[in-house]
Write the C-alpha cells for this entry.
Amino acid sequence: MAVRQIRVIGDEILTKRCKPVKEMTPRLKELLEDMFETMYQAEGVGLAAPQVGILKRIVTIDVDDGNQYVLINPEIIEQEGEQRGYEGCLSVPGKTGIVTRPNWVKVRALDDSMEPFELEAEGLLARAVCHECAHLDGQLYVELVEGELMDVEKEEELEEESGEE
Ligand code: NI
C-alpha cells in the first residue's frame, strides 16, 4: 500500500470525465487500498480516483459510520430533500464553502468484487456520495458554492462566534 499524490485544483485531470471500470484487476485492488490510505492520511471522508490521477469511475468513502464504502461506476438513482452546509475537498486544500445537496440519495454501484449493490445514504454520507460522484464527471464543489469560497480558519472563527464547537 502507498499514499498517492493528491491532485489539486488547476490540474486538468480533475476536469475530465472518468471511464467506467470493466473488470477488477490486481492493479485496481491496489488502487483501492491506496485510495483509502491516501484518504485517511489526508484526513478526508471521501476520495475519487481522478484525485490521484486515475480517470476511472471509482470512489472511496469513510464517514466514520463503521463502513468503508467502495463505489465503482456509481449512479445516483434517487434523491430527496435538501441539506445546506460547509463542504471541503482534498483537491482544494485549506478552503471551504457552503453547498446545498440532497439530504438523502440512493446510489447504485459495484463493490470491490464487481458485485452490484444499492446504498441509501443520508446526511453527511449523502453529501459525500454526491461530492465524490461529481468528481467522476470532472466537477468540483467550488462550482456549486453559495457565496464565497473561504479559508477553513475563517469557517472555524465563524463557528466559534456562533458558539458552536
Ligand atoms: Ni473532493
In short: The chain has a mean pLDDT of 95. The radius of gyration is 16 Å. Residues 26-41 form the longest helix (16 residues).
